[in-house]
Structure formats: C-alpha cells, structure tokens
User: What shape does this take?
Amino acid sequence: MNFPLIAQNQNQATNGVTEMDATAPASGPQNTAISNYATSIAQEGAPASVPQREIDPIILSNYVETGGNYLPLTNNFGHWAGGYARSSITKGNNVWEGELNGQSEFGDSGVYFGGGDTFTINSSWYGSISAGSSVGGFFWPRFRTDEFINKKWLKQKQWITTFGFGYDAAKDPHRDHSLYFGSTYYFQRPWIVESGIRFNFSNPGNVFSPAGFIAITQGRNGSHYFTIRVGAGEEAYQLIGPTATLSDFKSQTLTIIWRQWAGEKWGINFIGDYYHNPFYSRGGPSIGLFRLF
Assistant: This one.
C-alpha cells in the first residue's frame, strides 16, 4: 500500500515468499522507508518536536500512478508482464490507498485489487491495515491482509520501529501466517536506512521460512528518491502452475528504485528488479508515471 518505493514494481502474490521482495502486492507488507514516516504525518499533524524544515510533511498523499513491467525468467519459465494503477488520498489523519494490478505469469493471467488505510494515532504512534483479493491468476492470493503498528522514538522522532502481522490464503490449500519486525532511521536529510525480518509459517506442512532485507534511500521530496534494497531468506512454497509448486528453498533479491520528479506535480518511477532461487532467475524493469494532486 501507500506511495511505495521499496516494494512497488511487480506486485505479485507472495505464495509463501517471506523475503518481502518486490513481488508483494502494493496493499501488502509495505512499510517502506519513505512512506513509513510520511504516512504518520497528516498535513497539519507533524509532531511539534520535529522541525518542519527537516520533514517532508506530505510525501505519499494525493497521487495517482500507472505503469507496467516486463521480466524475463531463465530455465524456460517464460516471462512476466503486466500493468498497474494505484492512488492515495489523505483525509484528516488517514491516508487511504488503493490499487488495481493486471499480471501475466507462468502461462496464466489475472487481476489483483486491494486497498488500505494508514492512520495517525498520536504524535508517537501510527498504524496501517490493508486487504486484497483477485480474479483469475493462480499466482495471486485468494485473500490477503496485513496489519502494522509503528512507534516513533528519540527527540525528533527519527527512529521508527514496526511490528506487523500478515495472512495470505493462496488459491490452492496453502495458507501463510507471518510476523514482521522492522526498524527505520532517518538521518539528517537526505538519507534513510530501513531493515526488517519476517517470520513466515506456512501450512500444510507447518513450514517455517524466515527472511530479511535492508534498504538505503537517498533523496528528497520534489526532487528524487534513489533506493537500493537487498533481501535474502527462505520460501516455504511458490506456485508456478495451478498444480505445480516449488517448495522449501532459499532466494535472494536486489531492487534499485529511482523516483524522479520531472515537474512540480509529476514524474517518472523506474525500478530494476532481480530475483534468484535454485530453479530460475528473474530480472527486468518496471516503469511508471505519477501525478500529484
């Protein structure tokens, strides 16, 4: 969900993927470095202890974005391709977000749709809840939901800790429950460092598959954001067909994101994504246009 920077490109269902890579739906576990702080600050609700000159009070509110992706896979797995549209609107202490994502993978296609709300509780706490479902596409979840609670620390609220819970019901019998722990630190602009670990429990089989990531972002609102993110961990399973599953393996990801303002209200979002597991590698671009309003 939100104005995603770390995990916004392919937006696929995780199907037991626990490294929080770039394949998660935008309404999934997306406590990204930029949005993690920005969504806690309403237009007129920035904490008094945080100087306004050091904070971009509105980063991900009131925007629309549309784009597409193309990612070839190795070992005769074909390619992934699709397009998306998403939007975010701020109302008071709430940031409402929604997305529509059409995708083709492993010889099948479908559409994912989801939405959520990130809400300010007080000057130190904020939370988020999201949910989504899909039509077609065996790789999309039948139902997915994620909930997060965030706490801001230190004098200028520049350190944020995150705890989250997720549930994913695949279109086969697999079900995932996960716990997420994350940390985000805002240095004197323009640097942000984020890390997180997810503990995933998949059934049937009661398979435990932990994974983590670290991301570094440079830039500022209205100019550009440049992010490098690396992730690694285990996957309980991954659907590659209606009745075909890859099970119990390790995977790694590398994602580079460049969000560049081309004007006061619009710009281009470019993502280069690479993913590797023992069965195939996947890599390619996602390009989108965003417009603020």
